[in-house]
Amino acid sequence: MTATKILVADDHPLFRAAVLHALQGAVENLSTVEASSASTLTALLAEHPDLQLVLLDLTMPGARGFSSLVYLRGERPELPVIVISSNDHPPVIRRAQQFGAAGFIPKSSPVETIRTAVRTVLEGGTWFPPITAERSESDARLAARLAQLTPQQFRVLLCIADGLLNKQIAYDLGLAENTVKVHVTAILKKLECNSRTQAAVLVKALEQEGGIDP
Which SUPFAM superfamilies match (predicted)? Predict the structure, then answer.
């Protein structure tokens, strides 16, 4: 029997352990990998092409709001993602839906809820708590614009949002500076931005209003 491989991405070791315990009772022949930061998540995504599900915390080091979710959906659109967060306000759940999550599990959920959500998504469904927040047209437009970027362009965009110069981006991502310039030009065109500052503002929009609870 082929193993079901799930990536658990959360920077709190105790919470990862609790999720792994829940998964043991939800999935037969389970195989898991763990990430504690956005950079580790990116590396593991490349190392494990056979992943079948990602459980994603929104507040890992290196993540900006929904940036990791948007990156995952761009890099591996066929791979379902369940956001698992302590911030379970209705607008946050709605944003997770609009940015492409297949499910949302509040961190306060009992073990059986986690198991039910995981089974449902692995079977091709979606699982979200009941929500009352209305769909946001601005989020829909933002998601559509960001979806035009390649995964590498999205990484460059995050560096732009951090205020890095092209030379610094090239060093951090292991690219030639001229390649970064080409990416920046393409990013601004796809996002319909006239400046790097405007592009950075779009990344800021990925962050939840008032910040994300740890």
Answer: C-terminal effector domain of the bipartite response regulators, CheY-like
